Amino acid sequence: MAQRSPDKKISQIGSPILRNASLPWDKVVLSVVIPVYNEIATVEKLLRQVREVPLDLDVVVVDDGSTDGTRDLLVNLADELIDQLCMHEKNLGKGAALRTGFERVKGHVVVIQDADLEYDPLELPVLLEPILSGKADAVYGSRFLGGPHRVLLFWHSVGNRLLTLLSNILTDVNLTDMETCYKMIRTDLLRSLPLSTKRFGIEPELTARLAQAGARIYELPISYHGRSYSEGKKIGWRDGVSALGWILKSNCWPPRAPRWTPPLEDPWDTDLSPD
Known about the structure:
Elements: H1 10-13, H2 15-19, E1 29-36, H3 43-50, E2 56-64, H4 70-81, E3 84-88, H5 94-104, E4 109-112, H6 124-132, E5 138-142, H7 154-171, E6 183-186, H8 187-190, H9 202-213, E7 217-221, H10 237-252
Parallel strand pairs: 1-2, 1-4, 2-3, 5-7
Antiparallel strand pairs: 4-6, 5-6
Helix pairs in contact: 3-4, 7-9, 7-10, 9-10
Domain Glycosyltransferase 2-like: 31-191
Protein name: Glycosyltransferase 2-like domain-containing protein
InterPro entries: Glyco_trans_2-like (IPR001173), Glycosyltransferase_2 (IPR050256), Nucleotide-diphossugar_trans (IPR029044)
């Protein structure tokens, strides 16, 4: 795991670290799980942005069967920018890639980071703050709470809001952005959740399992620079239909996540590396 560089300008990109200096920023390790599929144009820039985050990081990259040269690029970048590199021989889906990454994380807290530059890694300390302060077990970064964002794809936004509404009805939580990439979760909690989806259904499945576990979920505004389909956006209407099915399946059929009780000891005081 890479140690936080002492010369990084945390006053510019890590304001929570200065605002709440008493929190255990130097003790926590954040595992950043990055599923990648045919992102040769963006993945190197994204990885360099991740490495600018002023935290101790465990960067886990899972290539999900890329065919555009991304795999070779990741191998070349591994020593410099990646702590753990996993390869799927064929495309299995975002959910499968994330589950592979979750099995290998070594940090106390896990966050999902897409490789498409739509989400800004320099906002990760903001999402981590409620977990470190003991207020939350999981934090969602919402694109709909007022952060700066690119104006794009009206019907995509409507679809996201409808899926979030249905998820909220069935989980009895009050999220504004269930489909957000930025989900940050304590590792010990994440390991207690039964996950099975292989594709984009991972978003509603994770949300349902967190609600079933009784996790304390926070939402915070984030910036968002969405891509158009001509720029490489991959999710489409079929994925929306699949997500709808997973909302129903995750909430109405077993298995359900067991109720979760946080251990008395803070996770950053223990070694959570997989056996």
